[in-house]
C-alpha cells in the first residue's frame, strides 16, 4: 500500500542498525525489531517511534530493524505452478530468516553479541515472531522474544487453501500456467490491482478479509501453536 511519508521499492530486503559502540569486545545485547501491519503492509521506518537511536543509547544495546517482502510479494503461494515455486509462499518469512542469519554473522562488527539476540515486535510483528518460532530455518538465530500483541491471529492455511488466491491473481493478470514465470516481470502497481481483485473474491466466498500467512506444511512452517 502507498505510504504517506517514505518512498517505496520492491527492493526491500534491508535492515537498519543503531549501536552505541563498534568495539567487537563490547558484546552488547542485540534487539531485533519486526514491524507490524500484518503480513500485508508496513515498514521498519514507517513511524518515528521505530527509530532505534534512543533505545540503543539509553539501553546500551544494539538495535536492528528489518524490512522484508510483504503481501503477494512475500506470500503468494504458487505451489501448484511448478517445483521452482513450491516455497513461494514463505519468501517473506525467509527474508526475516536471512536477516537473522546476517545478524548472527555480522553483528559483532557493530558491538553486538550474536549469542544474545532478542526478537521484539508489535501486532503483525509479534505474530511473525510466533511464526519464526515455528520455522526450523530460524532455529538458533535468536535466544529470546518479546511479543507485543498480535498473538490472536489464526494461521492454519495450507497450500490447498491458498490455491484460490493464487488462481485469482494469475487469472486477473491473464497469465497462462505454462507461462507463470511472467508474473516475476509484473510491475507492482499492476500486481496491486490483481491483489484487490483477489481480496474482493475472498470476501465474497468466505465473508472475511484475506490475511496473508505462510502455508502450514509441517516442514517449512508448523503453524500457530495456539491452534494445535
Automatic annotation (TrEMBL):
<dbReference type="Pfam" id="PF00135">
    <property type="entry name" value="COesterase"/>
</dbReference>
<dbReference type="InterPro" id="IPR002018">
    <property type="entry name" value="CarbesteraseB"/>
</dbReference>
<comment type="similarity">
    <text>Belongs to the type-B carboxylesterase/lipase family.</text>
</comment>
<dbReference type="InterPro" id="IPR029058">
    <property type="entry name" value="AB_hydrolase_fold"/>
</dbReference>
<dbReference type="GO" id="GO:0016787">
    <property type="term" value="F:hydrolase activity"/>
</dbReference>
<dbReference type="InterPro" id="IPR019826">
    <property type="entry name" value="Carboxylesterase_B_AS"/>
</dbReference>
<keyword id="KW-0378">Hydrolase</keyword>
<protein>
    <submittedName>
        <fullName>Para-nitrobenzyl esterase</fullName>
    </submittedName>
</protein>
<feature type="domain" description="Carboxylesterase type B">
    <location>
        <begin position="8"/>
        <end position="219"/>
    </location>
</feature>
<dbReference type="InterPro" id="IPR050309">
    <property type="entry name" value="Type-B_Carboxylest/Lipase"/>
</dbReference>
